[in-house]
Amino acid sequence: MKIICAGEMLIDFTPQTGSFTYKANPGGAVANVAVSAARNGIDSSFLGLLGNDDFGHMLKDILDENNIKMLVPELTDKAITTLAFVTLYENGERSFTFVRKPGADILLSPEDVKEEDIRSCDILHAGSVSLSDSPSKEAIYKAVKLASSMNKIVSFDVNYRDNIWHSEDRCKTLVYDLLPYIDLLKISDEETFMIGGSEDNIGDFMTSNNIRVVIETLGANGARYFINDNGNILSDTIPGFKVKAVDATGAGDAFWGGFLSKIMMYEPDSAASITEEMVRSALVYGNKSGALCVQKMGGIPAIPCKADIEGSNL
Q: Please, are residues 30 and 130 in contact by the beta-carbon 8 Å criterion?
């Protein structure tokens, strides 16, 4: 099966030993998922824009090394490759400071979204970061709506970043416009504002927006799934794996990339054909992928491959 990941790829400056000393690592939530899928043997493409600078060429090389097709191969001279400076905390959690005024990722345009590319995929994955500015917002809207109209499976990660959005309400408004087109929605336990502030609202939320699956990530505690089975909401929690976290950067993306990869290994022909058994199995697989990722430093370099996940003793 084939996946297109539409959105941002950037440089994560990860802190090293010493004050304000950083290492440049490839990252970006959507690109991380593309790499995770590729490392799990999925035919993966990236729909996003990179700057025509040293960092952009570095990221292009990363995509090439992972056999990920760039659907916009030309690098732009209109903005530099987007940068993010990571702050790490003792528990392995992190925050970000973005250099993006604008960054190249924002300049993805609707003209870059080709009908023939969307038609060729089985799953389209996107996230909210690209909705925060134009023209990337319009490009993601076009890609998601096209994919839905072609009966592709549409995946979406809320991935709320306060220092990009500065307002939960603004993010919620723009994401809600896309909900009727989304089949698989990923939120974290800190993003329940997206579903009305409480899991008690999840059934009505899914039914009113015709969402097939919602996955709520719970950090080290694993993930909870909600499946809309013709109005009957099936739900359970799949526990995570206890490991020593070094850096959580990219871990949620490694989780989601692992989850989507496992779903694709079952070769569903539509969102409606994704069963509860598939979701449970995919969450175990995704939890392993995320747990392996947090034990290493730095986004894409830490994302495990299929052999790592299947061979893990977790």
A: yes
